[in-house]
Specification:
GO terms for molecular function: ATP binding; sequence-specific DNA binding. The chain is 46% helix and 11% strand. It is built from 15 helices and nine strands. The longest helix is centred in the C-terminal third of the chain and has 21 residues, at 268-288. Bound molecules: adenosine-5'-triphosphate.
Length: 322
Amino acid sequence: MSFAAAADVGLVGHNRGFGAALEFARKAARHTCPLLIVGETGTGKDQVARLVHALSPRADGPFVSLNCAALPDSLIESELFGYERGAFTGAGRSYAGRFMAADHGTLFLDELGDLPLASQAKLLRAIEHGEVTPLGSTRPRKVDLRIVAATHQPLEAMVREHRFRQDLFYRLNVARVHLPPLRNRRDDILELAAHFMEPLRRTQEGARVGWFDASALNRLLGHVWPGNVRELRNVIEAIFIDPPDGPITERSLPSYLTHAEGWEDRGGGAAGEEEVDERQRILDSLCATHWNKSAAARKLRWSRVTLYRKMARYEITPARGA
Ligand SMILES: Nc1ncnc2c1ncn2[C@@H]1O[C@H](COP(=O)(O)OP(=O)(O)OP(=O)(O)O)[C@@H](O)[C@H]1O
């Protein structure tokens, strides 16, 4: 990955699994196929979506985002597809909607797993036909954009439980970036901490803050980080509310960090990383060969049987028609 490009949108980290995910995102950025970014809350999905847009041929076009969890079901469709004046009570003027606003650019659908089932069907139609029909209109409008979607929810399981449409899942799961949780990339914690401290050090008070002492370092490196990078950023900001003069000790850390039990590494972290790497390599080869599994298997120097076995293991679903 060109880390310079990642740094352009403020992405920091040299962990192998994270680097492999960014590398795949960078490659996928050049294509127009939809991209699905998965990862726990606070792992950087929004940031990666912006990176993909910035590196894409549509970089000069708009980047428009919609958080599917932030709107009530009744408003999602009018927000996505727009409406005509008088389409419903209160529609005093027409509204183009986010799809049209993202024309020639990227539409980022955050928290895709929260999109209501009825809207999922309309979204699929809009993607497949490249057109949207605003509420209250019968005239479809052409739109040319790239969809990047993100979710922290297990979409495969939601498909099995009929909570997410299988056809939309297949349409969006063509290229997938998995961002590892911070607990599986603890080698990035200190670099990220330094990154978040840098602007805070620019004040007179902040400039006197030193680095973490040994006990504070233990706390940082041993914490589970359920809120991932966002939680780490918040912890750093909290330290600078009443900044210490000199090294940062345990006393400067939020109390929940020093009272919580540390995370027991049972070897899962390293294995998790390797798995993320392998999954990315498989997706990379499949995307590069347009999901031709014989060609992808050759690229990976595996037999087709091995590729099928690994695809099943990592729940990699073939794109429709592949
Ligand atoms: N690799 C990184 N380098 C620097 N900052 C990062 C990185 N990853 C995440 N952040 C920062 O952490 C915060 C959360 O990131 P972001 O909003 O992209 O996460 P997310 O996965 O989209 O979260 P959510 O699922 O809750 O929407 C942001 O302030 C972002 O700038």
